Amino acid sequence: AQNFVRVDSGEADAFLSNVTVTEERKEKYDFATYRLDTLAFEAKKGSGISIKEPKDVAGKKIAVSSGTNQEALLVKWSEQNVAAGLAPTDISYYQNTTDYYLPLQSGRIDAYFGPNPSSQFHAKQSGETEVVGEFSGAGDTLQGQIAVLVKKDNGLIKAINDAINHTIENGTYQQILERWNITSEAVDTSLINPPGLPKTK
Q1: Residue 192 lies in a domain
Q2: How many domains does the chain have?
Q3: Tens place of pLDDT for every residue, the chain, 201 residues?
Q4: Which terminus of the chain, N or C, has less C-beta within 10 A?
Q5: Domain that holds residue 152
Q6: Residue 155 region, left (φ>0) first, then alpha (ψ -120 to 50), else beta?
Q7: If you compute the radius of gyration of the chain from its CA atoms, what whole number of angstroms results?
Q8: Secondary structure of 147-174 in HEC code, one letter for each residue
Q9: Statement: the pTM of the whole predicted model exceeds 0.70
Q10: Statement to judge: residues 44 and 127 lie in one domain
Q11: 112 Cβ contact list (under 8 Å, min separation 6)
């Protein structure tokens, strides 16, 4: 939330930290996409957990950050599972990404549901966890996109879009994604203000 305030006040020209394009945000901001919005379930290495569809979270203890797309998806899936006669998901909340590391290692939670890049990075660096499932951050009906955000009509978005597309064309973009183990989130081209997550009612 602080980063949006900084852009709104003019303290910052752009915000690029896992920002999902949404129709509501497009009313106030312009976007240049640079990767697909993929969420991941991270579990202790060798746990045998596999989360490939919503029913796989039934009865599991899953950690998530509040106020995020992944929280909304997890709550929705738990409700669907209960309606289908399955066990609810036991949801734990951690505001800082690193706060879930110890509970995951000690077995107090089965998995963490968060942005794919941070989960892939933590799994690679620690060697103690692994990604056990990936999902679109927009749910099953839309592929979400992550983008650089700027104040609407401030004149910067075309230059940012051109710069991203230049890195895609010269191969730098692919090298960066390979380094961070997120090639599955690559886009073919950066788009300005593509369709975003629909407004919530």
Answers
A1: no
A2: 2
A3: 688 889 999 999 999 888 889 999 999 999 999 999 999 999 999 999 999 999 999 999 999 998 888 898 999 999 999 999 999 999 999 877 778 889 998 999 999 999 998 899 899 889 999 999 999 887 777 788 999 999 999 999 999 999 999 999 999 999 999 988 889 899 999 999 999 888 876
A4: C
A5: 2-37+141-185
A6: left
A7: 18
A8: EEEEECCCCCHHHHHHHHHHHHHHCHHH
A9: yes
A10: yes
A11: 41, 42, 43, 62, 63, 64, 94, 100, 104, 119
The DSSP symbol for 74 reads H
The backbone region for 94, taken as left when phi is positive above 0, alpha when psi lies in -120 to 50, beta otherwise, is beta
User: Which phi and psi (to 5°) does residue 122 adopt?
Assistant: -65, -45
Helix (H, G, I), strand (E, B) or coil at 94: coil
Q: What is the token pair recorded at 75? A: 């709550």
CA separation for the pair 184, 141 (Å, rounded): 18
Rounded CA gap, 104 and 189, in Å? 36
- Helices H, strands E: what count in the chain? 7, 8
Indicate whether 6 belongs to any domain: yes
